């Protein structure tokens, strides 16, 4: 993939992992469209802000409109996600629909928008999954199911778009930052709960993304970054296992 005249779109690009990805791509010379939910949300200096509600059906067109006048979009990172607790006995159809809309439908619409505007050359889509798919449990059930849908989308889109020069891959990291209502003490206790006894860091995802950018022959693959946590087959989400 050429290292000049290239634009990347990163959803959820104003905070946490998305912000780190945006800053890394800017440092690598990309023009970066950083998607945020609200107009007042900050983005890294040098990034172009795109504001859209990923739960809305017009989110993809709004985000791609921010790339008008920029070099062709050749990288789409579907990073943004809705994350809220539910499980058997506490299910909400509204929450399920909301998580599917943001975590699966929006990436589908964005990939479709990329494909419809893609004319020539290489392009890459990277979907952010979750390492828990390798050893699932019922905590955060709607979120988990939405990530399964995104994993399926990765496979289907990779097969459908390879002939057009569009690669579709995924990165599935374990816990990197405090999530949901998790407090700092709990995070510190469980962050390195994996066979390597090494907490997964945001920089690990950035390194994986750079690898995928440079790996022109790779499509339909998922890079799992979990320190081997899937081997442990944890019965619950890691944040509920601090006394294990």
TrEMBL record:
Pfam families xrefs: adh_short_C2 (PF13561)
Xref: InterPro entries: NAD(P)-bd_dom_sf, SDR_fam
Top-level taxonomic group: Bacteria
Gene3D superfamilies: NAD(P)-binding Rossmann-like Domain
Key words of the record: Oxidoreductase
Family of the protein in this entry: Belongs to the short-chain dehydrogenases/reductases (SDR) family.
Protein's UniProt name: SDR family oxidoreductase
């Amino acid at each position: 993939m050429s290292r000049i005249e290239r634009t990347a779109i990163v959803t959820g690009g104003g905070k946490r992992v998305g912000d780190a990805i945006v800053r890394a791509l800017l440092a690598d010379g990309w023009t970066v469209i950083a998607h945020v939910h609200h107009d007042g949300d900050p983005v890294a200096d040098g990034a172009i802000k795109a504001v859209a509600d990923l739960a809305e059906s017009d989110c993809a067109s709004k985000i791609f409109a921010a790339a008008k006048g920029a070099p062709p979009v050749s990288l789409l990172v579907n990073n943004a996600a809705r994350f809220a607790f539910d499980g058997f006995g506490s299910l909400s159809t509204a929450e399920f629909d909301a998580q599917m809309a943001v975590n699966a439908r929006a990436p589908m619409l964005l990939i479709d928008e990329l494909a419809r505007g893609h004319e020539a050359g290489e392009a890459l889509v990277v979907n952010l999954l979750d390492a828990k798919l390798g050893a699932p449990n019922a905590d955060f059930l709607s979120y988990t199911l939405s990530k399964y849908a995104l994993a399926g989308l990765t496979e289907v889109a990779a097969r459908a778009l390879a002939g057009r020069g569009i690669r579709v891959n995924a990165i599935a990291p374990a816990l990197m930052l405090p999530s949901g209502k998790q407090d700092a003490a709990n995070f510190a206790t469980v962050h390195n709960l994996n066979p390597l006894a090494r907490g997964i860091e945001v920089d690990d995802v950035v390194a994986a993304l750079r690898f995928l950018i440079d790996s022109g022959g790779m499509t339909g693959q998922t890079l799992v970054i979990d320190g081997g946590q899937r081997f442990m087959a944890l019965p619950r989400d890691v944040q509920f296992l601090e006394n294990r």
